[in-house]
Design goal:
The structure is a single chain. By secondary structure, the protein is mainly beta. Helix content is about 10%, strand content about 30%. It contains two helices and 13 strands. It has helices spanning about 95-100, 155-165, and strands at about 10, 15, 35, 45-50, 55-60, 65-70, 70, 80-90, 120-125, 130-135, 145, 150, 170-175. The strands form three sheets. Strands 3-6-5-4-13-8-9-10-12 form a nine-stranded mixed β-sheet, with helices on one face. The chain has a two-stranded antiparallel ribbon with strand order 1-2. The chain has a two-stranded parallel sheet with strand order 7-11. The longest helix is centred in the last third of the chain and has 10 residues, at about 155-165. The chain is globular and about 45 Å long.
Length: about 180
């Protein structure tokens, strides 16, 4: 998979693309569900089904933990296989060039832990680009096509997933 982006590390966190004109989706509730899951994925694999706007953590054959997510808006969606290459609590965020171009008034860096920071309470960066699975400061956006390619989760959900998976976890994103 080729993202066509370069990774940017800043203040101990990696930038991720998240700020977008928010498409309001029905508010999702933080509450991961254990569900039946079909697919030939090893336990520990994260599977993001973009069209469903759901993230699944396979816990055993035929079973997964399911979380609601926000995904890439039109023109920003992608699919492929990658791995988690970093985990960060309260990461700082530097908007990538395309976000800055679309939103020139955004500061060059938003400190971690501040209400304006779109990364939420945690981020897990993905190898090969500027994408991440992360929390959000806009919980009503979870469940929509809203990001510049990142996988957006409720803060309680990213905290739950963060503690369940290590760096190196395989991530499969499907349409």
């Amino acid at each position: 998979m080729s993202f066509g982006f370069r990774s940017v590390k800043l203040l101990g966190a990696v930038a991720a693309v998240v700020v977008a004109a928010v498409v309001t989706a029905p508010g999702a509730e933080a509450r991961p569900d254990v569900v039946a899951f079909r697919g030939d994925y090893a336990p520990g694999t994260i599977v993001v089904k973009t069209n469903e706007r759901k993230l699944y953590l396979v816990v055993e054959p035929g079973q997964a933990v399911r979380y609601p997510v926000g995904v890439g808006k039109a023109g920003k969606r992608w699919e492929g296989i990658t791995k988690i290459d970093g985990k960060y609590r309260n990461p700082a965020w530097a908007p990538p060039a395309d976000v800055k171009r679309d939103n020139p008034s955004i500061p060059d860096v938003i400190p971690g832990g501040t209400p304006e920071n779109p990364m939420g309470v945690a981020a897990m960066t993905l190898a090969g680009g500027e994408y991440a699975i992360h929390g959000t400061n806009r919980p009503n956006s979870v469940g929509g096509f809203v990001s510049y390619g990142c996988i957006r989760m409720l803060n309680d959900d990213i905290s739950d997933l963060y503690q369940r998976v290590p760096v190196g976890t395989q991530v499969v994103v499907t349409r």
